[in-house]
Amino acid sequence: MLSDWLQASAILPQADLTTSEAAIQVSGHLLVRNDYADKSYVTAMLENYSKNGNYIVIAPGIAIPHAAPGSMVHHQGLSLVTLKHPLNFGHPLNDPVCLVFGFCAPDHEGHLDMLMDLAALLEQPQYVTRIQNAATKEEILQIISE
Amino acid sequence: MLKIATVCGAGVGSSMMLKVFAQQILDQKGVEAEVTATDISSVDPHAYDALITASAFADLLDPTATRIIRIDNMLDKIYLKQQLEIVVADIAGSDHNS
């Protein structure tokens, strides 16, 4: 379940942000704060976004900013920033984004269970809407533990 | 054995999701296939029967090199299944002719 991977300390609900870069940065800082990755990983996430662009918006309203695996990653980890005001990430079909799941992985395969648990939740639109509307971390943790 | 690659920017996020979904769909259909996750800077399109990727990367790939499935909603498994069925049929057809 996603609740195995997403800790309260890595969730920021209803963030009042104005740019896609800020949203990526905040999702990255949550990974750093939980000691999943070094600060330099946040820079790498922003570089991946500026170089490869909008593909991190994997479905309508959902972005998964990340960077390539490497020594700046300590453990696999996941963070969630929900946006008070949906933001454009430059995706022709999936904008605007309201859920930003930052993640990091030390290698290419080890985090597969985490990613699949995330996908299993996001495939259900009713959960996406509820997470989007949740006002507190506790509410979000409740939804992902169901 | 079909060779299919999923392509993204870092080879760790969307390409891994698409790899698992595509492999599940092909296994269920009984199609022998190996699906590999890779990234846009290292992929050799000629090495695969088909690629699966986001539109932003599809635009960067040579459309004559191999079959390309574009997917913008990566959680839409029904769309992915339809596209894979088209590609599998196309590959079967071209094998038959050759």
From TrEMBL, chain A:
Keyword Protein transport found: no
CDD domains registered for this protein in UniProt: PTS_IIA_fru (cd00211)
InterPro entries: Ascorbate-PTS_EIIA_comp (IPR051351), PTrfase/Anion_transptr (IPR016152), PTS_EIIA_type-2_dom (IPR002178)
Superkingdom: Bacteria
Domain PTS EIIA type-2, first and last residues per copy: 4-146
Protein name per its UniProtKB record: PTS system, ascorbate-specific IIA component
A Pfam short name: PTS_EIIA_2
From TrEMBL, chain B:
Key words of the record: Transferase
Gene Ontology molecular function: protein-N(PI)-phosphohistidine-sugar phosphotransferase activity
SUPFAM superfamilies for this protein: PTS system IIB component-like
Ranges in a coiled coil: none
Residue ranges of every copy of the PTS EIIB type-2 domain listed in the record: 2-92
One annotated GO biological process: phosphoenolpyruvate-dependent sugar phosphotransferase system
Xref: Gene3D superfamilies: 3.40.50.2300
Superkingdom of the organism of origin: Bacteria
Stated name of the protein: PTS system, ascorbate-specific IIB component
Originating organism: Sporolactobacillus nakayamae
